[in-house]
């Protein structure tokens, strides 16, 4: 199984690029949302840690935002509770998809949480800053302060780009990107087959 890990800035289009591979995708953001909605144990831990902020189940984004806004350290505290649950789901996903030729790991904190393995293919999604800002502003819970805090939790983009095997320029139309990813997918498979 080839593990392709998609890296890039928040709002760079990682999930879009991941989908274009047409392979099973582990999307950490979706899993985190699922955990907030469905995982009662996670809720209990969050409520115990943040009794003034986390009050209702399913966990509300607004309550999490308030907790993060009140103290810089809180984002790390939330991560300590949520990340083990995400890791468990990732392990289950990899077990379920073990017969797939390629799986895509769309995990924003992949490098930071040392979730990548030696043989992984790392792809960095490069997007113009203006495009990223435009995209982020369209998001329902757009909050510049929170985004800045999330960014400060991540390794530098330059470091991620340097670590990557491929850089995908995501500044073209969806059709061009579809063609580009199709070519890249073939390249990855043929290179892996030749080693």
SSE blueprint:
Blueprint: E1 2-8, H1 14-20, E2 25-27, H2 28-38, H3 40-49, H4 61-70, H5 74-96, E3 102-106, E4 121-126, H6 129-138, H7 144-152, H8 157-163, E5 166-169, H9 174-194
Parallel strand pairs: 1-3, 1-4, 2-3, 4-5
Structure description:
A five-stranded parallel beta sheet has the order 2-3-1-4-5, with helices on both faces. It contains nine helices and five strands. The longest helix has 23 residues. The chain has 195 residues and is of the alpha/beta class. It folds into two domains: 120 residues, Rossmann fold (3-Layer(aba) Sandwich), CATH 3.40.50; 68 residues. The model has no long low-confidence stretch (mean pLDDT 89).
Helical amount: 55-70%
For the biggest β-sheet, the strand order reads 2-3-1-4-5
Mean of pLDDT:
89
User: What is the count of distinct domains?
Assistant: 2
Give the number of helices. 9
Q: What would you give as the CATH superfamily of the largest domain?
A: P-loop containing nucleotide triphosphate hydrolases
| Gap between N and C termini | 14 Å
Largest sheet: 5 strands, parallel
Radius of gyration: 18 Å
- The proportion of residues in beta strands is 5-15%
CATH topology label of the largest domain: Rossmann fold
Counting DSSP E segments of at least 2 residues, the number of strands comes to 5
Q: List the secondary-structure elements in sequence, H or E.
A: EHEHHHHEEHHHEH
**From the coordinates shown, what is the CATH architecture of the largest domain?**
3-Layer(aba) Sandwich
């Amino acid at each position: 199984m080839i593990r392709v890990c998609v890296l890039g800035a928040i709002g760079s289009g990682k999930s879009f690029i991941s989908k274009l591979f047409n392979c099973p995708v582990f999307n950490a953001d979706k899993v985190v949302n699922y955990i907030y909605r469905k995982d009662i144990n996670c809720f209990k831990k969050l409520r115990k840690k943040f009794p003034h902020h986390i009050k209702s189940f399913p966990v509300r984004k607004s309550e999490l935002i308030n907790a993060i806004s009140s103290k810089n350290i809180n984002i790390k505290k939330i991560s300590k509770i949520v990340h083990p649950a995400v890791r468990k789901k990732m392990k289950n996903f990899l077990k379920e998809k073990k017969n797939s030729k390629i799986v895509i790991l769309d995990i924003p904190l992949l490098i930071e949480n040392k979730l990548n393995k030696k043989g992984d293919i790392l792809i960095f999604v490069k997007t113009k800053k203006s495009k990223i800002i435009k995209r982020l502003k369209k998001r329902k819970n757009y909050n510049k302060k929170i985004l800045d805090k999330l960014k400060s939790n991540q390794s530098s983009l330059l470091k991620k780009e340097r670590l990557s095997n491929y850089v995908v320029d995501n500044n073209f139309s969806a059709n061009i990107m579809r063609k580009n990813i199709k070519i890249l997918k073939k390249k990855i498979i043929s290179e892996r087959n030749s080693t």
